Amino acid sequence: MERIKICSISLQTIILFLLILASFWLNIDAATCKPNEKIRGKRPHCSEKKVTSHGTKAVLTLNSFEKGGDGGGPSECDGKFHSDNTLIVALSTRWYNHGKRCHHKINIFGNGRRVTVVVVDECDSTRGCHNNIVDASKAVWEALGVPKKDWGELDVFWSDA
């Protein structure tokens, strides 16, 4: 009886150890922060909270989609300017995929939160935008709960909604 009890405790200990190891392994990428210093913004920001690894790893940057804003011209998807108070993004050229994601919703996971946004523009990789960028309106940064003083860059994951 004593031997069965010891084996049962050892098996429970091994299972617990494997669960802890698995959860650490699944979240290790989300805990790594390597800001890209070539992107404009006030200062790089790294989430101290672990983000669930759902989707494609990216760098969230700040963009204005309004007329006269730092985004340049009107959106590629519809040729219009958009309010920075809406949950919208521009995707790097490879993810924009020749406009196939125009007006589609995507989920962004960052800063311990998830937000659903609409793709309205391309962040043109042939004009200096890196190929791992989700360029977001201020409304997206607010929805993710990032303090305004930390807006600029944030490691995130994104997926089609």
Entry keywords:
161 residues, alpha/beta, six-stranded mixed β-barrel, 3 helices, 22% helix
- Element pattern in H and E: HEEEHEEEHE
Q: How many E strands?
A: 7
N- and C-termini, Cα separation: 54 Å
Strand content: 25-35%
Envelope shape: elongated
The average pLDDT is: 79
Q: What percent of residues adopt helix (DSSP H or I)?
A: 10-25%
Structure classification: alpha/beta
Q: Helical segment tally?
A: 3
Record the strand order, biggest sheet: 2-6-3-5-4-7
Low-confidence stretches: 24-52
For the sheet with most strands, the description reads: 6 strands, mixed, barrel
Rg of Cα set = 20 Å
What's the short story on this structure?
The chain is α/β, with parallel strands linked by helices. It has helices at 2-27, 93-96, 138-143; strands at 43-45, 56-62, 88-92, 105-110, 113-123, 133-136, 152-160. A hairpin with a 2-residue loop joins strand 4 and strand 5.
What does this protein structure show overall?
With 161 residues, the chain is an alpha/beta fold. It contains 3 helices and 7 strands. A 6-stranded mixed β-barrel has the order 2-6-3-5-4-7.
Architecture blueprint of SSEs:
Layout: H1 2-27, E1 43-45, E2 56-62, E3 88-92, H2 93-96, E4 105-110, E5 113-123, E6 133-136, H3 138-143, E7 152-160
Parallel strand pairs: 1-7, 2-6, 3-5
Antiparallel strand pairs: 2-7, 3-6, 4-5, 4-7
